[in-house]
């Protein structure tokens, strides 16, 4: 078996059956796995997914304060802007295009740290990065940690059930995990520490970073708009953290064949370009699956890509030293040939009319 086959912690119901077909667990099986994997008293190696969902739970009081104490249409607008656009775009900039795909490079560690902490921290890099490499290698196949064909819950709870790294990797295998994470600047466990905690990330470092990030942003928001703005935006961050867990189910057509000619050019999997995620977060998902290492995925004129605009701006001012841009390649290999083929198909029809 390859590294990609074994790097993630296998769920109790497995990835595939004896015939190689995708296992589609019942809701009961998924919830059982979910709560078992969150049980830190049963196994301390469950600490990372537990912390990830604890962050979400910590946001509930902020969201309730926004709704019942600080609500106004101005605050609603701020919550919408922060959750849908700022948090979403930052997730694309940091977790997706940099941490996972290395689509661009920073001049130094300061600007990497700056970009990492542009927003309230909600998702551990480790859970996102390693599993996303597997997603691209096995997209819509058994072993894809958020395979939309297995249903909504399979994707929504994947960060606990399918995305954590395996806890029994050999030292050479764990070193490969370290290589995938090294450029992110996130400090990792030694192999001995990994055997104890079952993760790349160290609990002490994770908790320290969490406390510092949240303290900084609450202070900034409080200085700008008091507790009202701080509670509103923290609640919005929690709302985003729940909503983003639905993306891959939607971004792969809910497991159905819904790709459209002239819009979705990658036919190797079920990824689709969607207008809303594209506009608010630069997630033109089918384009991204065509060119995963590109710092831009909004290739067509109408495909707004806020994440790309940030990367390009940082390049202009010298903070980003290099990046990949696959727009030209997209037009040459996919869009222009498609338009040419479509024009050729229409010629016989025009000839008959004439």
Shape: globular
Radius of gyration: 21 Å
N-C termini distance: 61 Å
Total E-strand runs: 2
Kindly report the spatial arrangement of strands forming the biggest sheet. 1-2
**Beta content:** under 5%
Quaternary structure type: single chain
Low-confidence stretches: none
Instruction: Compute the average pLDDT.
Output: 95
Structural class by helix and strand composition: mainly alpha
Largest sheet: 2 strands, antiparallel
Q: How many structural units, i.e. domains?
A: 1
Number of helices: 16
Order of helices and strands: HHHHEHHHHHHHHHHHEH
Share of residues in helices? 55-70%
EC number: 1.14.19.1
Pfam families: FA_desaturase (PF00487)
Main location: membrane
Protein name: Stearoyl-CoA desaturase (Delta-9 desaturase)
